[in-house]
Amino acid sequence: MIIKKNVMISIIIPTLNEAENIATIVKVINHSNSTNTMEMIIVDGGSQDDTVKIAESLNIKLPLKVINSAPGRAMQMNNGAIIAQGEILLFLHADTLLPNNFAEMILSCMQKSGIVAGAFTLKIDSNNWGLRLVEWGVKWRSLFLQLPYGDQAIFMKKDTFNQVGKFPELPIMEDFEIIKRLKKMGKIAIISDPVITSSRRWLKKGIFHTTILNQIIIIAYVLGISPATIVKWYRS
User: Fold this and answer.
1) Which of 42, 113, 141, 186 is most buried, by CB atoms within 10 Å?
2) Is the pTM above the cut of 0.85?
3) β-sheet bridge partners, residue 88
């Protein structure tokens, strides 16, 4: 798979009540050292806070579109992909920061033979030792099982995204499902430089509780329990 050195990367950011984070994530991308052509697409799923207002007010050099969508991360990302102009799509959670020169890393990665998609190593923004164990587990899972999740900033060619059938519009596990499909097409690359994601999810419910719950959810999904039922467990 040959990728030209300078192709547009469309960064698709689904949001829901992310007023606290959206300005930071956009500014980090805007101030990155990359010279590559990029655009950002924020797809809001009905925020009740100032997420949309803040996003629309940002004065940045990169092209930025803010659109509304029915709620649901999968649907929001799919709607962003529909209007994306880039040859490469990068799906980024609104509480996750990309490393400097991420665009060059992605382009270099996609030049390698057999690579159909990729993601980054995960770093969690907390000094809690328990989260270092979580990071270690994510690294092992990503490298050896080829199973990165959405908070690792998944990327692929737009043609590949359309070929694999886009994100299945499930209430949960949409990232797991699309990666499973991509693995049948080729290799999933993991970039060693990490993205930095918020620790809020782990600290709110507890690191042990969140980790165990995540594993139960995966097992339940693999066993065929409906995503609607699984998401009720997750939210409760």
Assistant:
1) 42
2) yes
3) 9, 157
